[in-house]
Design brief:
- The protein is mainly alpha-helical.
- The chain is built from 5 helices and 4 strands; from the N terminus they run H-E-H-H-E-H-E-E-H.
- The strands form 2 sheets. It has a two-stranded parallel ribbon with strand order 1-2.
- Helix 1 (about 35-45) crosses helix 3 (about 65-75) and helix 2 (about 55-60) packs across helix 3 (about 65-75).
- The two termini are about 35 Å apart.
Length: about 140
């Protein structure tokens, strides 16, 4: 269970017992503002392109690669997480095959693995796949 999930025994049994959405107080575990900003950037990355954790932090002019990575690990499941990557182009450990399916479907440039590569998994071709946000730079705040 996510640390931000509401336990089943804390939820009203009857939908009519729930207050209107407009009258709900802000949840104390609401998504942090920085996390919202990171996820918004992840959603801007076009299919077939990627940004590194450091690129996202630089785009936001706040935090660093570790902070972006933490946000993606905790909250990134609802956005195209596979488009926010390590700077070396290695696929996200534990999610390699799912990410690879997305990369192939989107036509993301890959470098085929050598026979010596662990698991024979390709890497992202960062020179060709990396997105600098140029198409959206005019709307960046």
């Amino acid at each position: 269970m996510s640390e931000h999930s509401i336990p089943d025994d804390a939820r009203p049994e009857d939908d009519d017992a729930r207050p209107d959405h407009d009258t709900l107080p802000e949840h104390p575990d609401a998504l942090p503002e920085y996390a919202e900003r990171v996820l918004e950037v992840a959603e801007l990355i076009p299919p077939g392109r990627v940004m590194t954790y450091g690129d996202v932090a630089e785009w936001l002019e706040e935090g660093g690669p570790r902070q972006v990575g933490r946000v993606m690990a905790l909250y990134g499941g609802a956005v195209p997480w596979w488009r926010v990557v390590r700077a070396d182009g290695a696929l996200l450990p534990g999610h390699e095959l799912r990410a690879l399916d997305h990369y192939r479907a989107e036509g993301t440039p890959l470098k085929e693995a050598s026979r010596a590569a662990q698991g024979h998994l390709p890497r992202l071709d960062m020179r060709r796949a990396r997105w600098d946000g140029g198409e959206r730079a005019d709307s960046h705040t």
